[in-house]
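User: I'm new to structure prediction. If I give you an amino acid sequence, what do you actually give back? Let's try with this one:
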Amino acid sequence: MEGIRRFLGVQRLAFALFAGVLLVTGWRIVDDYGIGWDEPVQLEIGLANYRYLVRADPALWDLKDRHYGPLFEIFLVRMMDQSSPRAMYISRHFWNFAAFWAGVVGFYLLLRSMYPRRWLPLFGAALLVFSPRLFADAFYNSKDIPFLVMIVWTMLALSFFLRQPSLIRLLLVSLSTAASMAIRLPGVFLLALVALMIVREVLAGRLSLRRAVEFSILYLFFTAGLVFLFYPVFWHDPIGEIRQAFEILFNFPHFASVLYLGHFLSPQELPWHYLPVWIGITTPIPYQVLMLAGIGRAVRDWFSRPKSLLAAEQTPCILSALWLGLPAGAVILLGSPMYDGWRQMFFIYPALLIFAVGGGDSAWFTDVRRLAADVFHLPGPADLCHRRLGVAHRADSPAVQPAPCGWLAECGPGGRNFTAGGVVDGRPSSLPKPVFQPAGRPGYANGQNALRHGLLGTDLPPRSGSHPGAGPASGDPRPRRQFSR
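Assistant: Good question. You get back a string of structure tokens that encode the predicted 3D arrangement of the chain. For your 485 residues, that looks like this:
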């Protein structure tokens, strides 16, 4: 019964409700969205591949866009309603949104592996859903949204593999990698990402060199086989078609002008700042603040403790950095063509959201509150905690104490992180002494000092022959002052 109660926790029930409302909402508003300009092309790709699978129709070899990822398009052809053109496109849009919904679920599970038993996974999933640049595309963009979804599930499979390497988990990583490449060929960057993460595990001593080599060979073998299976166009001329597919990948033949900063530019001659500017102008400002805070926090930790780059607890952050940095860096350095804004790079957006969730972590904002208190002389976390306890400051105590008391839910009387008894200022006290036990949170020592440095002075029982305003007690060199509450 206890196990069931833990499984059906408040956070999971809240996400189940959130996911259910999201799916129902998508089903109700699916017919509000029209047809994208390239959706008929995607339908043609799906039909050509499906007809080749069903009756070996050779028309696939004459299709101009035959090297586009066919996997999700084949799925849509199989699932769409063919009773009328309108019903066909509406059904395609619903299944496209269903894929986005699966991506939200996968992103939530990925965040739960990083932030267990906290509300941050639900917060991150909500950030993904309420991203205005992505939500409309979730209905009619059958290339970039499914690709984003499969990248998320690949990262989830890879995080499980890195936590406990095994052959079964490696097969899941290979399957999700191949599916990503079969939706959009730029998923080839996953090969480099997985290789770098395995090398990191070897350098950290968590994986032997022999096992790392074995896993790498098996990963490449299974992934290559599955990619070949998922691309029917490769079957009749593997070498020629694969070579041509990668030539198109690195030199995409798109020549329509792109409007950028008031000028029409060639997609092959975009400036390096095209991608960050487009992300900036289409992402809500609060999101960007959280992203920058999370990235700044990560960079600060890496520079202050370089050895932490190999630490196990840094694995999610390193994974997110490579997820963001490898594709974005390749696009900027190689000058890869882009158009329609930045939709071809939607798949790096969840990595930015992971940093945004890290920026929204309360430990980071505790530091922000502390900085604000130091700069603007605002009431700090310790002041708030002491006011809640009904305690006054003493003149010789620090004006502001950092992190621990900022967790106000745990500072009040009867909080779960308080115990009774103890010593205050070296003197026995008959009153309960709060002892903060933050379970490894930063600033513990400062929090203890905040509670130990006489901040309970007016609540101490008077010594014999003295009262709170009578001056120094025997053996106590410090003056005793009386403060009003």
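You can read the tokens as a compact description of the fold. Here is one thing that stands out. The mean pLDDT is 78.
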